[in-house]
TrEMBL record:
Lineage top rank: taxon: Bacteria
Binding-site list for ATP: 32-39
PANTHER family hit by this protein: ATP-DEPENDENT HELICASE_NUCLEASE SUBUNIT A, UVRD / RECB / PCRA DNA HELICASE FAMILY MEMBER
InterPro entries with a match to the protein in the record: AddA, DNA_helicase_UvrD-like_C, DNA_helicase_UvrD/REP, P-loop_NTPase, PDDEXK-like_dom_sf, PDDEXK_AddAB-type, Restrct_endonuc-II-like, UvrD-like_ATP-bd
UniProt gene name: addA
NCBIfam families according to UniProt: addA_Gpos
Described purpose of this protein according to its UniProt entry: The heterodimer acts as both an ATP-dependent DNA helicase and an ATP-dependent, dual-direction single-stranded exonuclease. Recognizes the chi site generating a DNA molecule suitable for the initiation of homologous recombination. The AddA nuclease domain is required for chi fragment generation; this subunit has the helicase and 3' -> 5' nuclease activities.
Matches recorded under CDD domains: DEXQc_UvrD
UniProt name for this protein: ATP-dependent helicase/nuclease subunit A
Pfam families: PDDEXK_1, UvrD-helicase, UvrD_C
Catalytic activity: ATP + H2O = ADP + phosphate + H(+); Couples ATP hydrolysis with the unwinding of duplex DNA by translocating in the 3'-5' direction
Gene3D superfamilies linked to this entry: 3.90.320.10, P-loop containing nucleotide triphosphate hydrolases
Transmembrane regions: none
Length: 1240
């Protein structure tokens, strides 16, 4: 141990923190309890290392997440900048400045990121292509795995190997072989968490070779035997107590009964302790419990009840031994285990083949996954000889380079990562340079195959100074004493090495380190219980108010409590301002075990008007617009799918109603729904048949597009053709829905950048995400600053919140993994259940029994640590929410722990599978003095008499929730009414002023300063058309001016997605004709050349096919045959077509009687064409107006009058733009084949 500098008196660090910052010369394990400031200590240690002369790139700092790495770099940067600013020594200042330069490339990252750096540098040592892509998308990985597995499985089936068929039958059912698929995938993932997966797989069969019998096997001796003996010994102790109690007059028969049973139990214990298993099993089978012989005397009733309770407990233990350890005889267990050996060998062989095939496929596609990074890095760092593993040159380089290896969240490291770290650190423990920080009580990532035993091993060894030293940071600088005392109360009774994997002793207990919180009695943790069953009420509950399940009850109860906190301005302490202030929504977090109830939370809190921030509601695929699009994609991929077809037909894309869907089905009941669609079309000519025909054409178009284009293009085409993107904007939460559709395009684009292509694979990709219960995060379009946050307990790790609600605490533990036909464990290997081929009955093999028991302990230990994480997130106020049938059932459940005489409960109670976190909390409270006010029967509190923990319990049921909701609604109405009364007079005056106000520039405000010639030409065709009908003002100014100076269309065009097939409009034909005349080459056209150009425009979707058919081709040919047309062809190099212009005019030049003469208007327009000669211009403009009597001069004059003003503006604009006079202005009336020169 080095000399640690003396801590200054004003230093804020504790003695233990100070030691963790400066201690060196050994491997150090810092066990940092929740809120103990471990990140601050880690950053300070880094800075002190730099002050000692180290360079930042001589340290390897490994974090668990990228976010943690970023935070670490930011904190180090701030500390370095402060050091630069405060340092007076120029040499030291230069050193700190250098560290700031090195910091961006320093090795401060996740272990995966560091492994990637190692591979990029030393790829040539392992013969890998340095150009590879990271396989970051889990679903892409799943698809690739399944492709490899499908090929391997087909090859194995083709070999007709009996052992493979037996393996398939053992793990699958009569419907599919998915069970075998899941087995291989799970075993592959588990094996890959080991440093040497192949070696681990090869050793799996060892436990199935019981050469010396069951009793002498390693698994039985190490795993089963201690548990059996513990349970039997507990029975022996119980019977000793019973025989002592059952003595005296009136208890003779009882004593005789329990003494006889005691003798049998002792014989069974002796047989098990001497490994005479067959004898012990036979005795267990013969052991019977006759009817209990209690005493009828009233004065002996208490003794009788006590003895009976002990006897019942012993009976349960005996039943557990038979059920859990010896469901069949020892000889049968041996036989079953040996029969399972060939299956395990075949399972290992198949998994190894899959591992090799998947690795090869990834290499072929140039991709690596995160697990590959670790294995390849380990491969680079090691060299294998015949007898041992040795450090490679790369390992020697890093060991020499890194003066210290720092690991954050060490409790979440797995065996593979531990091996990598070994080849990076100093191997000599006497010169240890590894600094590990973590808290095994917060190890909650077993699903990532984290191995907390690595931390625990060092925690125990380092306490004895074996291989390093241990430092414990127990002071909590986060929470109030009420939260800490409550947490200590629960865990000192729950957590020990048997369950939880570590002692919750004095070193582990939380100590308050932040003392600035004001004293207040309102901060004791609150247990909130929803009673699912209640007494009959005379009050009738409205149907809409009936709560569907316990989840809704718990959430309404929680929401009402939050509203109460907000409405009553509950005061919390603000650490930043160092003052108390009223609570806000953003101070509150809801922590949930899983995300499954997130949608319900959103719905219920919306009804209570509580804002929420929920970044992952897991409802993207449940959104209506996404489900519709996915159904459509499935249909495009394969139209012979009834459910997607019906979904699309019913959706707004087609818009059928239920009776129409039924009519289609009736058209053909014998075949698919797709066939029925065709059958209906063939036999009907109604509106429904027309709709189906239209959709059929769209579907054919999309199917063709899917074959030759990208999925991204396909989605954009669907959005365009259906108008669906615009449609969803008009729905509730329209902006979010539109964002969801955009996100689907982004997801498709990301998918197409992967190793997969095509619509079929994309649909399969989405289906796999849904099967695996995965979801895409819903794109967040806005987040309220002041909102209650919702997250899982896992996501909350490392965070802190003023007020915490732990939800769904009575949710039963998820032990689904234990119900599989297989189980894996790092040290014990793989256990399988064996199916008898003839009877198809499943039996537990010895390895399966041992691993199942070990895994149950691990799963429940992690649940316990998850509870610890949840409780320690709270800074000030903690609410724990759950539900029971009623208060009586809650008390009855918790009372199972009431008579325990030791502080820590028996493992049997804590390891009950059908239990919950709330039950554990209840066990911890039942013996507390504070609990006695809630109990009818007294419970001994002597063990917890000195506890300073405080808590309260409240109950609500459906009726009380309805009453509170009604009170809340009434209160809001009263508040609203009061506010309205207060504002009524002020509002009336304000409205009167606003209504009476006369704007001095009313005319200018109603005249747009940007006018098109198309709008203005209406002024010339009808001077009265300037009147705007939408707005009527009574001011004297607008009455005097008899016109409004703005053009507005009275009715906007319908959106495309609302338009039905209608007659082609004259305007559409006119637009198409202008487009054609603009794009036709200036040469004499023919009917064929014009029609060809029209088809080009249709294909490019510039004009609609129906409109193209209405274009008058003959009139276009006529025009080019005229003198003007021939003149344009002859001088085509001087002809300009579709010429845009803009022109600034005084408003009174356009509008008569315009009051504000200084106002100006910007006029814009497009001239159909002009011919430019040396000193003048000729303008021409095409019109397709229908003229009923073309020979009537009056009608021709009317047309000229209609367009004369527009053409005059064209003439003025072109004269000013080109500085040349306009000689002729030709109005070309194509429909009647006449040309009028309005300048003549």
């Amino acid at each position: 141990m080095n000399q640690i500098p003396l801590k200054p008196q004003n230093e804020r660090f504790t003695d233990d923190q100070w030691q963790a910052i400066f201690d060196q010369g050994d491997n150090l394990l810092v066990s940092a309890s929740a809120g103990s400031g471990k990140t601050t200590v880690l950053v300070r240690r880094v800075i002190e290392k730099l002050k000692m002369g180290f360079d930042i790139d001589e340290l390897l700092i490994v974090t668990f997440t990228e976010a943690a790495a970023r935070e670490m770099k930011e904190r180090i940067q701030e500390a370095l900048q402060e050091a630069v600013n405060s340092e007076s020594d120029p040499v030291r200042r230069q050193h700190f400045t250098k560290q700031l330069v090195l910091l961006p490339t320093a090795n401060i990252s996740t272990l995966h990121a560091f492994c990637l750096t190692v591979i990029r540098r030393y790829y040539y040592l392992i013969d890998i292509d340095p150009v590879f892509r990271m396989l970051t998308d889990e679903t892409e990985t799943i698809l690739m795995k399944e492709d490899v597995w499908d090929e391997l499985r087909e090859a194995l089936y083709a070999e007709n190997d009996e052992r493979f068929f037996q393996l398939t039958m053992n793990f699958s059912n009569d419907r599919s072989d998915d069970g075998l698929t899941n087995l291989v995938f799970s075993l592959y993932e588990f094996a890959r968490a080991n440093p040497d997966p192949q070696k681990w797989l090869e050793q799996l069969s060892d436990n199935y070779r019981l050469t010396e019998g069951l009793a002498k096997s390693r698994l039985y001796q190490e795993q089963i035997r201690p548990l059996v003996l513990a349970d039997i010994y507990q029975c022996v102790q119980l019977y000793e107590q019973m025989t002592q109690l059952a003595q005296g007059e009136g208890l003779e028969k009882m004593h005789e009964q329990v003494a006889g049973e005691q003798l049998q139990i002792k014989n069974i214990y002796e047989a098990f302790s001497q490994d005479r298993l067959e004898e012990a099993y036979a005795s267990l089978e013969q052991l019977t419990f006759s009817t209990f012989k209690s005493s009828r005397k009233a004065e002996l009733k208490e003794i009788s009840n006590e003895v009976k309770g002990m006897r019942d407990k012993a009976k349960k233990l005996i039943q557990q031994i038979s059920k859990s350890y010896f469901p069949v005889s020892p000889s049968q267990i041996e036989e079953l285990t040996e029969k399972a050996l060939p299956l395990v060998e075949e399972m290992t062989k198949v998994t190894q083949s899959f591992m090799d095939g998947f690795s090869m496929r990834k290499r072929e596609k140039g991709v690596l996954d995160f697990n590959d990074l670790e294995h390849l890095a380990l491969q680079i760092l090691t060299e294998k000889t015949k007898d041992a593993w040795l450090p490679s040159e790369a390992s020697k380089h890093y060991r020499k380079k890194f003066k210290e290896v720092m690991v954050d969240e060490y409790q979440d490291v797995n065996q593979l990562q531990e091996a990598i770290l070994y080849w990076l650190r100093e191997p000599d423990d006497t010169k240890g340079n590894m600094f590990m920080v973590g808290d095994v009580k917060q190890s909650i990532y077993s699903f990532r195959l984290a191995d907390p035993s690595l931390f625990i091993g060092k925690y125990e060894n380092f306490s004895k100074k074996e291989g390093g030293r241990r430092i414990v940071l127990a002071e909590n600088f986060r929470s109030r004493k009420e939260v800490l005392s409550f947490t200590n109360l629960i865990f000192e009774q729950l957590m020990d090495p048997a369950v939880g994997q570590i002692n919750y002793d004095e070193a582990a207990k939380l100590i308050q380190g932040f003392s600035d919180f004001p004293e207040n009695e309102q901060f004791e943790p609150e247990i909130m219980i929803y009673e699912k069953e209640q007494e009959e009420s005379e009050i009738e509950i409205p149907t809409d108010d009936i709560l569907e399940d316990k989840t809704e009850g718990e959430l309404f109860m929680t929401g009402l409590k939050i509203r109460q906190l907000i409405d009553s301005s509950f005061m919390i302490y603000d650490k930043k301002s160092k003052k108390s202030r009223p609570i806000e929504y953003k101070d509150i977090v809801l922590l949930t075990p899983t995300k499954k109830n997130n949608l319900t939370i959103l719905e219920i809190f919306k009804t209570l008007d509580i804002p929420l921030e929920m970044n992952d509601a897991q409802n993207y695929f449940q959104a209506t617009e996404i489900r519709t699009m996915i159904s459509l994609l499935q249909l495009i991929d394969n139209p012979y799918q009834d459910i997607p077809l019906a979904a699309v037909l019913r959706s707004p894309v087609v818009g059928l109603i239920e009776p129409e869907l039924a009519s289609i089905r009736l058209a053909d009941r014998a075949h698919t729904y797709y066939d029925a669609v065709f059958a209906y079309q063939a036999s009907n000519e109604d509106e429904l048949a027309a709709k189906l025909e239209h959709f059929g054409k769209q579907l054919d178009h999309w199917r063709e597009l899917a074959r030759r284009s990208s999925i991204t293009d396909l989605l954009w085409d669907i959005y365009y053709e259906t108008g669906y993107l615009e449609y969803v904007v008009g729905l509730p939460a329209g902006a979010q829905r539109q964002a969801n559709l955009y996100a689907l395009v982004d997801r498709a684009k990301a998918y197409e950048q992967s190793s997969f292509r095509g619509l079929y694979q994309f649909v399969r990709f989405i289906e796999k995400m849904q099967e695996k219960d995965k979801d895409l995060a819903e794109p967040v379009i806005s987040i309220e600053d002041n909102a209650v946050r919702v997250m899982t307990i896992h996501a909350s790790k490392g965070l802190e919140f003023p007020v915490v609600f732990l939800l769904d605490m009575t949710k039963e533990f998820n032990l689904q993994d234990l119900r599989n036909r297989y189980a894996f464990e790092e040290k014990l290997g793989a256990g399988i259940r064996y199916m008898d081929p003839e009877t198809r009955v499943l039996y537990d093999t010895l390895p399966f029994q041992a691993i199942k028991l070990a895994k149950q302990n691990k799963l429940l230990s992690e649940e316990m640590r998850k509870l610890y994480v949840g409780l320690t997130r709270a800074e000030q106020k903690l609410f724990i929410v759950g539900s029971y049938k009623n208060k009586e059932q809650m008390i009855q459940t918790w009372s199972e722990a009431a008579d325990h005489e030791e502080l820590v409960f028996d493992p049997a109670l804590r390891l009950k599978g059908r239990s919950s976190l709330m039950n554990w909390i209840g066990y911890g409270l039942i013996r507390h003095p504070e609990m006695q006010k809630y109990l009818e029967e007294e419970v001994s509190t002597s063990l917890l008499q000195d506890s300073n923990a405080q808590f309260s319990i409240s109950w609500m049921n459906q009726q009380t929730i309805i009453e509170q909701r009604q009170l809340l609604a009434e209160k809001e109405l009263v508040n609203l009414d009061e506010q309205m009364k207060e504002k009524e007079t002020v509002l009336a005056d304000s409205l009167q002023k606003r209504l009476a106000y006369e704007y001095p520039y009313q005319a200018s405000s109603q005249t747009t300063s940007y006018q098109s010639v198309s709008e203005i030409k209406r002024l010339f065709e009808d001077p009265d058309d300037t009147q705007e009908s939408r707005l009527t003002l009574e001011s004297s100014q607008t009455k005097a001016a008899s016109r409004q100076f703005r053009y507005t269309q009275e009715q906007l065009a319908e959106p495309k997605f609302l338009q039905k097939d209608r007659q082609v409009s004259a305007a559409a034909v006119g637009t198409a004709t202008h487009a054609l005349l603009q794009l036709l080459p200036l040469e004499m056209p023919t009917t064929e050349s014009i029609n060809q150009k029209l088809q080009e425009l249709v294909k490019k979707r510039l004009i609609d096919e129906k409109v193209a058919k209405k274009v008058d081709v003959s009139s276009i040919i006529w025009f080019f045959q005229t003198e003007l047309g021939q003149q344009l062809i002859a001088n085509k190099e001087n002809v300009k077509r579709e010429q845009p212009f803009s022109m600034l005019l005084s408003a009174d030049e356009v509008f008569q009687d315009y009051p504000n003469q200084e106002d100006e208007l910007l006029i814009h327009g497009i001239v159909d064409g002009y011919l430019e000669e040396k000193d003048h211009l000729h303008i021409y403009d095409f019109k397709t107006d229908f003229i009923l009597h073309p020979d009537d001069p009056a009608e021709i004059d009317a047309i000229v009058q209609k367009y004369q003003g527009q053409l005059r503006l064209y003439q003025q604009a072109m004269t000013e733009a080109l500085n040349k006079p306009v000689e002729n202005v030709f109005l070309i009336l194509l429909r009647v084949k006449r040309i009028i020169n309005i300048n003549k």
